[in-house]
Amino acid sequence: MIGTVIATVAAASAVWLWMGPTTAHLRLARLTAQDHHRYRPDLRFLTRRRHAARQADAWHQATIDLCHALSAELTAGRTPGEALTRAVSSTDLPDPEALREVVAAARDGGDVAAALHKAAPDDAGEGLRRLAACWDLSLTAGAGLANLVERIGSTQRAARTHRLDVAAQLAGPRTTARMLAALPVLGLLMAGALSMNPLGFLLGTVPGAVCLTAGIALDVCGLWWTHRMALTAQNT
């Protein structure tokens, strides 16, 4: 009986050693799991940044629509306050509550320019701030508000078209940079699959630690440099 149990355990151990994961596989799995937990906050940061970019683009488009609607209402002969109220109500805004004070000021004869400045978002509020400046100019100098607003809308539309074109042209270089940054990880996976124990060299020897540190530093610098160049191209 005892001999049978010992034989069974020995056979199971042999099968596990033959078919089970190697030490390199286990180390690579632990390293991958640690990297996943380590970079989870970065993924949340990227999600927030993409959401902010979508919100900014929505505000740019809403400002363009607002300027064109306001210009059309003014051309139709309505007063500035009534025209602004009707234009805001007909515009699809990312945050409908953001311009509530603007509508109240336009309806009650308040300081519309100050309300526009207050309602303008930090990232995509240049259109509303320009509209506020034009509103002040029309009240103090008697300039034609309809023409000024139409120019703001045209300028904002041209700027948004330029940003979209630049973003489309930068999509390829950004994808290439990310792919090149992921190649070292792919190399580690392939070496681990071939039982070459790359992590043992990188984590267990001094030359390996130097190579690992230098590789990570160069990888991060490459991603940062690509990101900086893309931002410079978008802001040009």
Automatic annotation (TrEMBL):
Main localisation: membrane
Secretion signal, residue range per the UniProt entry: none
Superkingdom classification of source: Bacteria
Membrane topology note: Multi-pass membrane protein
TM helices/strands, residue ranges: 179-196, 202-225
Subcellular location: Cell membrane
Keyword line: Cell membrane, Membrane, Transmembrane, Transmembrane helix
Limits of the Type II secretion system protein GspF domain: 67-190
Presence of the UniProt keyword Ligase in the record: no
Xref: InterPro entries: T2SS_GspF_dom
Pfam families noted in UniProt: T2SSF
This protein's name: Type II secretion system protein GspF domain-containing protein
Organism: Nonomuraea longicatena
